[in-house]
C-alpha cells in the first residue's frame, strides 16, 4: 500500500496547496492548522469537555498531570480574558466562542520542582488541538497577553506557570478578519525534516 498516496488523498484543497509531508503521515497532522477566523456558533459544554478529555490523557511524567485549564465560555468569563489579551490579538480573539488559559503546576507532590511540567503541558495542548480538529473545530494558541495581569485577574497561585491562551471555535470565513489577518489566514508550511534532525550529536 502506498501510504503517501493515501494520506495526500484526504488533504483539504487549501492544505494541499500549502503543505507537503516529506514522509507519509496521517492527514490529521497536515489538515490541522491554526486559524484566527471563528464562526459565530456556540461550542457546547459537552463538545468542550470532549476536547479537554483528550488533553486529560496526554503523556505525563510520573503521572503528575501538571496541566490546568482556566475556561472562559460565557461572556462574563471572556470579558476577564479581554483585560489581559493584547489589543492586536483581541481583534480576533474577541470573536472566539471559547478561550482557555493553559497553566502548569510547577511542583511535585513533595514540593520539589517538577522539571517536566511545561513539557507535559505542551503535550496536553497538542491533544487539545488535534481533538478539536477531529470535532470540526479550530484552535490557535496566543502568546500575546500580559501574564501578570492575567495572574491577577484570574487569581492564579504562584505555583502555577502561565503558558498560552487558546482560542477555540468553529472556523469562520477569512473575510471576517481585518485585511492584514486575511492575508495570513492560510495553512503554513514547515522546514524540511532533515533540517531538524541531528544525527547522534551536534
From TrEMBL:
Keyword Transmembrane helix among UniProt keywords: no
CDD domains found in the cross-reference section: TdsD-like
Coiled coil: none
Tree of life domain: Bacteria
One Pfam short name: Nitroreductase
Residue ranges crossing the lipid bilayer per the database entry: none
Gene3D superfamilies, per database record: NADH Oxidase
Keywords from the UniProt entry: Oxidoreductase
Residue ranges constituting the Nitroreductase domain according to the UniProt record: 31-85, 88-170
Molecular function GO labels: oxidoreductase activity
Protein family according to the UniProt entry: Belongs to the nitroreductase family.
UniProt protein name: Nitroreductase family protein
Organism name: Paenibacillus roseopurpureus
Amino acid at each position: 500500500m502506498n501510504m503517501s498516496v493515501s494520506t495526500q488523498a484526504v488533504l483539504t484543497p487549501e492544505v494541499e496547496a500549502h503543505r507537503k509531508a516529506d514522509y507519509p503521515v496521517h492527514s490529521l497532522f497536515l489538515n490541522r492548522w491554526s486559524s484566527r477566523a471563528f464562526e459565530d456558533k456556540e461550542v457546547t459544554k459537552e463538545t468542550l469537555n470532549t476536547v479537554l478529555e483528550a488533553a486529560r490523557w496526554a503523556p505525563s511524567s510520573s503521572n503528575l498531570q501538571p496541566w490546568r485549564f482556566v475556561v472562559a465560555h460565557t461572556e462574563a468569563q471572556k470579558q476577564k480574558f479581554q483585560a489581559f489579551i493584547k489589543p492586536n490579538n483581541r481583534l480576533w480573539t474577541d470573536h472566539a466562542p471559547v478561550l482557555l488559559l493553559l497553566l502548569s503546576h510547577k511542583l511535585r507532590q513533595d514540593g520539589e520542582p517538577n522539571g517536566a511540567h511545561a513539557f507535559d503541558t505542551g503535550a496536553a495542548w497538542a491533544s487539545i488541538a488535534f481533538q478539536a480538529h477531529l470535532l470540526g473545530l479550530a484552535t490557535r494558541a496566543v502568546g500575546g497577553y500580559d501574564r501578570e495581569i492575567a495572574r491577577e485577574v484570574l487569581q492564579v497561585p504562584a505555583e502555577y506557570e502561565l503558558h498560552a491562551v487558546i482560542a477555540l471555535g468553529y472556523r469562520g470565513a477569512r473575510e471576517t478578519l481585518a485585511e492584514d489577518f486575511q492575508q495570513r489566514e492560510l495553512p503554513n508550511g514547515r522546514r524540511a525534516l532533515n533540517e531538524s534532525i541531528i544525527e547522534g550529536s551536534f
